[in-house]
């Protein structure tokens, strides 16, 4: 896998994910002009949790009434799984920032399993669409259409038929972040090597609010969601792949 192909995923981030996507596209490395989806990709094999806490030590998360006991790491991940699996369809506005690139905004659509669309607002010329098996990264300015297998992209945490953050990757940390909860994992099955993904949920671990991806080349993309609408019908035509026609002389 060449650097250019691997790097293309360091740009279209969610995504995230996210998607969760949330998985989301469009970050560019400092001084570069790359493109592609730097989303978050997930699934997670429960391993020893990194950080200063011992594995299995309760995380200081007490959603609901204050008298409830703190949740341990496994319980946090189970709640995150439940939140992600409760979403069959989703649409949301997103804001994406990346390493050295200008902030990007747009709308993301997700239909599990497998279907996704990131529509970027102008001046971006990017578009990322998955029809369930192939993710197509289109650039209208460059007149390019780059296809990738969904299974090799950092989009699995948004698109899997059954999301399990303790199955297919490595959990590195679980903990509180301000008024929310963060889960950081590593996914070794993405293009170019291992990506590190941090999912940020609300305090109740009921909604994914944001994800951050650090790709194998060290490029970072953060995608924040707003105006999320869940489990409403989505026009299936938006998930159709439309390849750009090559320019001929």
Write a concise keyword list for the protein shown above.
249 residues, mainly beta, outer membrane lipoprotein receptor (LolB), chain A, globular, disordered N terminus
Main beta sheet strand tally, sense and closure:
11 strands, antiparallel
**H/E element string?**
HHHEEEEEEHEEEEE
CATH superfamily: Lipoprotein localisation LolA/LolB/LppX
Number of domains: 1
Q: In which order are the strands of the major sheet placed? A: 6-5-4-3-2-1-11-10-9-8-7
Q: What percentage of residues falls in helices of 4 or more residues?
A: 10-25%
Shape: globular
N-end to C-end Cα span: 30 Å
Estimated radius of gyration: 17 Å
Alpha-beta content class: mainly beta
Poorly predicted spans: 1-67
What's the level 1 CATH class? Mainly Beta
Q: What does the average pLDDT come to?
A: 74
Question: How would you characterize the overall build of this protein?
Answer:
The protein has 249 residues and is mainly beta. The protein has a single domain, classed as Lipoprotein localisation LolA/LolB/LppX (outer membrane lipoprotein receptor (LolB), chain A, Clam), CATH 2.50.20.10. Helix content is 11%, strand content 36%. It has an eleven-stranded antiparallel beta sheet. The longest helix is centred in the first third of the chain and has 13 residues, at 73-85. It starts with a helix and ends in a 19-residue tail after the last strand.
């Amino acid at each position: 896998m060449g650097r250019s192909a691997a790097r293309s995923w360091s740009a279209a981030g969610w995504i995230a994910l996210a998607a969760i996507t949330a998985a989301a596209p469009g970050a560019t490395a400092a001084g570069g002009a790359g493109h592609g989806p730097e989303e978050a990709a997930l699934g997670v094999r429960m391993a020893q949790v990194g950080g200063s806490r011992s594995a299995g030590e309760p995380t200081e998360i007490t959603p609901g009434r204050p008298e409830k006991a703190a949740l341990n790491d496994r319980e946090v991940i189970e709640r995150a799984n439940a939140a992600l699996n409760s979403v069959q369809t989703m649409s949301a506005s997103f804001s994406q920032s990346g390493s050295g690139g200008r902030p990007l905004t747009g709308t993301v659509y997700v239909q599990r399993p497998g279907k996704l669309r990131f529509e970027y607002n102008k001046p971006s010329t990017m578009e990322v669409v998955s029809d369930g098996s192939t993710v197509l990264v289109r650039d209208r300015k460059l007149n390019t259409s780059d296809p990738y297998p969904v299974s090799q992209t950092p989009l699995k945490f948004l698109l899997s038929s059954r999301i399990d953050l303790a199955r297919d990757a490595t959990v590195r940390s679980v903990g509180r972040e301000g008024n929310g909860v963060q889960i950081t994992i590593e996914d070794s099955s993405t293009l170019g090597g291992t990506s590190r993904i941090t999912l940020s949920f609300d305090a109740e671990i009921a909604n994914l609010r944001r994800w951050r991806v650090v790709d194998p080349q060290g490029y970072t993309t953060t995608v924040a969601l707003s105006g999320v609408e869940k489990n409403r019908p989505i026009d299936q035509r938006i998930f159709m792949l439309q390849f750009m026609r090559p320019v001929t002389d």
